[in-house]
Specification:
mainly alpha; ABC transporter transmembrane region fold; 12 helices; 4 strands
Amino acid sequence: MTEAPSSAPDASLSRPPATAAGKWRAFADFCRKAWALTRPYFNSEEKWKARGMLVAIVLLNLAAVYMLVLLNEWNRVFYDALQNKDQPVFWTQLGRFTYLAFGFIIIAVYRFYLTQLLEMRWRAWMTRHYLDRWLADHAFYRMELARYAENAPPGAAPDNPDQRIQEDLNLFTTYSLSLSMGLLNSVVTLVSFVGILWTLSGPFAFTLGGSSFNIPGFMVWMAVLYCLVGSVLTHYIGRPQIRLNFLQQRYEADFRHHLIRVREFSESIALDKGEAVERQQLDLRFSTVLANYLTLIKKQKNLIWFSSFFGQAATVFPFIVAAPRFFSGAIQLGQLMQIASAFGRVQDALSWFVDNYSNLAIWRATTDRLTGFEASFQTLAQAKAARELAQAGASPATSPAASGALQASGLTVALPGGAVLLDQVTLAANAGDSVLLKG
């Protein structure tokens, strides 16, 4: 009734290569695996609906960025009107803001609606797809057998297939869409606002060692430097979360799986008075869940310390940098607010990695789990092909006549009364193979 909780990490979580080239190869390999999970749905029988919805979501994201550009220009005119006490322009700009805000709301609502709808349809298709494969050719049974077979092929026994189908597919579709659209939004925002910020920030002149220097687009370079430092530190602080999130999903699934086993074998446990043993196993699994979660909380706390400081400092940073030009009269209040708004957009775009590190860690862990699940189906398919070759007497890897193997050709088994139990059966089983006898 009992089984040891799975605690060994998958190969996908092994330490990354030490060299930069090795890390890039590992990253490229991960992207290929993620694309292999993504591609089937958008090439399926639902491909035209899926692609159409995806294009609509992309267009709505582009429209949202365009609205932000219009609002940035509105900032300059509105705050200049306040500084100049120009009441007619003030009221005109309030009316214009109403139209801009209403348009932005419409875009945001339909972007959310279509994104959620695509997530639901994508998850439904992937769930049906994996259920078909899991239940075909007794794959669910062979995966369970492989967990206990000594000679099972590597990767043939993924832990908790039910959790991968029910939870991981949901997480994969949700984070794949949200992260990809967020990245697209950030790239387009950066392209749209970096030119605005470059023009508005003007040059920065200073003297060093008797020589004069002039840095054009000073605010752009400050935004890039600010976000580059933040991204490097975020990756350094938050990197352990990738492995911890992976393990947390596994331990939660192990605990849930054993609860289900207690329910399924309730009669046997009750007759054997095995409640104490089962409770010990449940306590062991739950303590593993809590221990890993506590470690994850501590790592997240460190990341939140940094990201909160990073975000709060970014609010006042553009004002500090641009304030000297405002107080010298080089720019008006409207331009100062426009600079701050443009800097904020550029900084937000460049900080996408910082802001989404925890989500990226969850998505990476989920993708690794599904990649392992996908690999298990391929391993089972290869094992099936090898069995068929062995039964045909043409297996290149193992011969039924090998030591410790069992081979039968044209075998007929009958009862003394003449009733046939097996008729002309051909089979081959090597030492260590799992064989099911039924009847």
